[in-house]
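Q: Structure tokens for this one, please.
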Amino acid sequence: MKNRIVNKISALYLGDQVQMHSGVASCINQKHAVQKLAVQFDHVVGNAEADPKHHGGLDRVLHHFPREHYGQYRRWDMMASFKDAPAMGENISTVGLNESQVNIGDIMQIGDVTLQVTQPRSPCFKLNLQFGHPEFALAMQKSKMCGWFYRVLSEGNIGCDDAIYRVDRVSDISVAQAMQIYFLPTFDAEQYQRLLQCSGLAQSWVNSLTRRISHQSIEDWQMRLYGKAE
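A: Here is the predicted structure, written as tokens:
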């Protein structure tokens, strides 16, 4: 049975222009509002990623970010200047749906499109550059106010007036809990195994967690968080 969880999308965004942002190639400032997204299995028509190794791909076709998080980051003085959607580079913006209400593997219906939640956004140093704060990425990692990604199960169109329905729930770990587990400061094989059991988890996260368990250690996060080695 479908469960409607958002009555209406706040806004939809896309963009395919790559620009240099503080010396780093990015599409984050090229997103613009549209009335409709044409969603295919491997991409959104008219949308692009400057760094396909770390962004995009079948497990990250669409980025969903809660609009209200901008206000919280501003209240924490994490932005050098006023920024709002789509400054996170998101495709879908909503109010009233957050990382504690969405689980890894959730099947969503939006317009003609069926989607599956795959992972939280894993913050990187480009957000530090985007918002003019040297620890923005770390703040997102700790707060878990990160948004999430979808893979596409059926193609179609998403419109601004579409409601969001949850069609099925296949795990008991929320996006916020997944963020908490993945970024635990100390190695915890038991918690990693919990997360690995989530149906629908992004393959890159499966690979990373499996490597940690095999090596009995956590990878260095300095390059991702700050763009440089410790």
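A few notes: The first helix runs from residue 69 to 75. Helices lie at 69-75, 126-131, 136-143, 175-182, 189-196, 203-215, 222-226.
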